[in-house]
Design brief:
about 120 residues, single chain, mainly alpha
């Protein structure tokens, strides 16, 4: 009698698990349409930029870092890195992390363009 109950219990658990997986995966699968990086909260975006800064620190490949940061949305990578540095300071990140973010901001800063115009003397 006890073995029979245990066997029915195992069969019920197995059938329930298979039914749940079948319903969740095949009949009503969940579609994630807004699961992209542009929807991250500011603290998670800061973490993402910090991870990109750490990769840049070790690899020194600025173009790959720009591509990683461009995945965050339509703003420029420079803006994302500056926002992350400010946010990291407010959230109390470690000094080493702040330094990596600052180095990334400096590396991404566009070089100032100096234009010289000739002066015409009368």
């Amino acid at each position: 009698m006890r073995r029979r109950r245990f066997l029915f219990f195992l069969i019920a658990v197995l059938v329930g698990s298979l039914a749940g997986v079948g319903y969740g995966w095949w009949l009503r699968p969940q579609m994630y349409t807004q699961a992209n990086l542009s929807n991250l909260r500011m603290d998670y975006r800061t973490d993402y930029v910090l991870m990109a800064a750490e990769i840049y620190h070790y690899e020194q490949n600025l173009e790959e870092t720009r591509q990683r940061l461009q995945a965050l949305g339509s703003d420029t990578p420079e803006r994302y890195s500056r926002e992350a540095l400010i946010s990291a300071g407010q959230l109390g990140y470690a000094q080493a992390d702040l330094q990596m973010l600052a180095d990334l901001v400096q590396a991404l800063a566009p070089a100032e363009i100096l234009t010289l115009t000739p002066m015409v003397q009368p």
